[in-house]
Batch of 2 targets.
Target 1
Amino acid sequence: MSKLSREDVLKLAALSKLKLSDDEIERLRDELSEILDYVNLLDSVAVSGLEPTYQVSGLRNVYREDAPKDYGYKIQDLLKNAPDIQDGQFKVKRVL
Amino acid sequence: MDGWPVIQKIADDVKSGRLKAADLVNKSLKAIDGNKDFNAIILTLEDRALARAAEIDKNPSGRLAGVPFIAKDNFLTLGGKTTAASNILRPFEAPYQATAIERLEAEGAICVAKANLDAFAHGSSTENSDWFVTKNPHDKTRVPGGSSGGSAAAVMLNMAPFALGTDTGGSVRLPASFVGAVGVKPTYGRVSRSGVVAMASSTDVIGPITRTAEEAALVLDVMAGKDELDSTTIEKTGSLSDTSFDFSGKKIGIVKEYMQEGLEPGVKSVIEASIDKIKQAGAEVSDVSLPSLPLALAVYYIVCPAEVSSNLSRYDGQRYGYSAAEARDLDESYELSRQQGFGAEAKRRIMIGTYVLSSGYYDAYYKKAQTVRTKIIHEFTDAFSKYDLLIGPTSPTVAFKIGEKTADPLKMYLNDIMTVAANMSGNPAISVPAGLSDGLPVGLQMIAPMGADGPMLAAAKAFEELSK
């Protein structure tokens, strides 16, 4: 395939919520193109009649009671890694 | 530094009072301190480990009483940070422990330190760590393999009798092969991943790294079983550590696709000598072809980044982990935190994953890869209707030089060419030391039918006996 354009890489970065430097963009254009070239070898593989496999455990619909359960976690422990908290809640930067 | 008695003996001696857990923890800490130049360890959990040892010495019990171990730093543990060797998790202190760690502790084991890895387990050399590069205990100029390179090196440097790794595409087996240890990738779902930093959830498994198969079987047996915190876990129906195995009369298939081009001559001759021993032990050995196995790596490099891009979306700089202070609004906070916190490999995988999952490309890449995955599974199922065990090398090469492959991501990916198929299919597989090529370890890989972890570990033990 042809090399990914700068616009392609920027679109992927936006979807991925990643800011990239100009150097990173140029490097990723090459690297992503090379990796996609490699995986394109699957194009020629015949798979008619086969279904995709998304998981291999064979388990289906593992249910549990929809009820709260106490695992002994403390709220202050769960919040201690947050960059900013207020009144026992995560505080984020302005949205708009 | 002195080696360790086998785990079973350590636990017995602690229970009978001949050994003290506190002395074992100190022995472990001393070995860690004396081998700092190998960069195997990110941090020790000294205070917590010594406190636990003191408790255990008061009333020693459990199948792993007083046995020190080292966890790859993508297992959540108390008593110190959990970083996954990534900058974005550098400040992270886990609020709870992984189920695997809890189960080991419940049997008396003591987590002493956290081992280096490729950041987020993305890699096969431990060179992608945001901390430092781990060196191979056999040759400091070479990599230990990865991504569980710190865990594998730690075992060979006698830092602990066992270490934990994770294997998403070969990350336990490859480093085990490169350092001369036993590394187990159990059946998918065997061990709960709750509390382990997620990479590719449809293939991630947890496995022990040890010096012998018998020890690995004990550790795996302690960790195995259903866990309500990981709904993919499977029920343990019997012990995984008390199976016996005799090669006599067993049907063993040599995977033809793994013995072909690209295999280093030195590796090939060690594997061929191993096959001869297995034949002499009375096994019926023949070549078997699984023609789609060489496609497994391409399947993996679509499926794995797809799942990585999803799993890494939780690192957004808001609830935990690195957060860019200068961001002015929420969107910028996401983008800058991720730009500054993720390394080059994580970014590559996020971008590839986003590409193959994006509308217009999903069918051509993601769905196609998952369909080829079905083909690989069918070939394994077919092979295991005729064979008890499949064998081949773990890696086409011995440990390579530090820096040799870092400039070319694709070349690095190819290290996993012989390990990824078992991840895509879910089958258990193990790397067992088979000998040396120019002084460097070579691993023999065994792949077993789904759920046959016990017989596979017993076969690995039987193979060790043949090599004595």
Target 2
Amino acid sequence: MDTAILSLKNLTFYRNEKPIFEPITFDVFQGDVVHVKGKNGSGKTTLLRMLIGALHPSEGNIEYNHIDINRTRFEYLSNLVYVGHKVALKSSLTALENLAWISGRDKKCESLIKALEDMGLSEKKNVLCSELSVGQQRKLTLARILVSDAKIWFLDEPFNTLDSDGFTLLKDLIEAHKNNQGIVVYASHQNVSISDVKTIQLEKAIP
Amino acid sequence: MIFATKENLFISYLKRDLVVSFRGKSASLNPLIFFVMIVLLMPLSLGSYSLALQKVAPGIIWIMALLSVLLSAGSIFDEDYNDGSLEQMIITPNLLFLPLLGKMTAHWISKSLPIAITAPFLGLFLPMPENALIPLLVGLIIGTACFTLLGSIGAALTVPTKDKSFLLALIILPLYVPIIIFGSSVIYYMADGMNWRYPLAALSSIFCILVVLSPLAISGIFRSSMIE
Amino acid sequence: MQWTWFHKFASPKWFYQITGKILPFLAWLTFFLLVIGLVLGLGYAPADAKQGNSFRIIYIHVPSNFLALAGYFLMAIAGAIGLIWRIKLAFWVMKCAAPIGVVFTLVGLLTGSLWGKPTWGSFWVWDARGTSMLILLFLYVGVYSLGRSFHNANSGEKASAFLAIVGTVNIPIIYKSVDWWFTLHQPATIKFTSAPSMHPDMFYPLLIMIVGFYLLYAVVLMLAVRAEILLRERKTNWVRTLVLK
């Protein structure tokens, strides 16, 4: 089916009364992988935060299934998962406890253990997050994607701090989700070789 | 997305924050120690004239409790803001009312309740008349709950700012005035032989209003995309 | 809500043009009212039976207090409009109203002190109204400081708006609790001359001064908002042509 799941219309954000990038109009369909490209400071994180509804756009709007996301907030937010720059993990909770918390499942749930295994973290499940390395923390925070059944993934610089195993793992996850008619929108200044990637290039706003 | 599918949202946030705060570093006890020290130092500046001390003791305990709670009130959202959990909470599809209430309750239990419970014991030192100790305890329990509820609104408003203790105090103190008035009146009524349940009722009604309005205000603040 | 007629009021350019037209008229009216009020009040109103001539300071004290309170509500309403309908102009009005409100509150407090000394012997008397005014001052200062402590001006405006609204909800509660406290602890030995029972010759100048102060507030606020508009819209064409003219 070819109706756009997510539509951006003339979207931009103002900082100090100036738009930080040229307004974007873009449609995202099922099975799309979208790579948001731009230099450091060009507004990739800001764009993602607008897309997840955490920031109100200064201009333009975003539609989910052709309804503005502010009107269909509950459905939209229930269908997305966001992994941001910061890991959103509590350092005084164990890996398993953190994963249980951020995916809303009970600690004893089978899917949590499996997700940790898939990420290569199963021996660390009862280790406090403060004792995990940065790369392990990032793998842990990405593990929630495996547990959730959200259709749309928003990932902000997900490949940062991952070792080569983690890198391949994440790439495979994205490809698999794409083949399952899911949507992945990720921001990265790196170039990752995933097939059939659409691009949003953030351009500096012309004054 | 953070939502507990089977458990009550209030309880799950309450439990998580309590676990985090009790497993965390020893910062949890500082407000209590601060409170004990400044109350015990108070007679030094007032002179040890027993009678004067007896009269002002309840008021001073209230103000010191207020200061101690105020100093820790600003930190309720700090850790979440710094590690990215606050962001996740803001994009939760569910209403933020119960999660916020859970967080504030956990914060109150770990930071303010110890102060409320220690106060009557300190009262014995000052010395306060013994029949005033129970009103002091009850008043402080409800009063510190009100302080936490109001202080969290201030914390939500100042989340991105640095060095926030004084700013927070500045914006929240005027709003604390009714709580201080009714709270200390509970004891003064007792001392003057009047029924101390009247100001206690007023204090409780303020608490009821705050329990409903504070989480609503904070969820409005968070959803208004103030935090970049 | 998408009512376009309403959004016309939200245009800074429209505001600038309209205020440009009515300001001279308003300013003169304010000037006249204040002069008349002061002359009548200071010169022609009869001296008070108990307080002699020192009561005359109420011609500044009472209007200042009125405006301090009204100004806070205006600030909060402007903030609420800005938050609900996302109108920038409303936030700018709120932002300008804060320091103006501080000044009016301070004037009210200082004139109250000056009145207190000859009348009751001390510069400050702890009573319900005075204490509430003092707390109002703190509320204003809080809103102002909060707005200024954000790097991002927009976040600061939103935070101030929220605080102003929370403060508004609290003002009646604060006033009532302070009032209750003071009726308890200081049986009313001190009474202000309440307006309706004043001699008409004392009352009419007061009325004129109150209206004059309202207009003064409006004039000052408009001037401040106009300056803010020029600052914030400095990159738009209409401001550039205006300034370069």
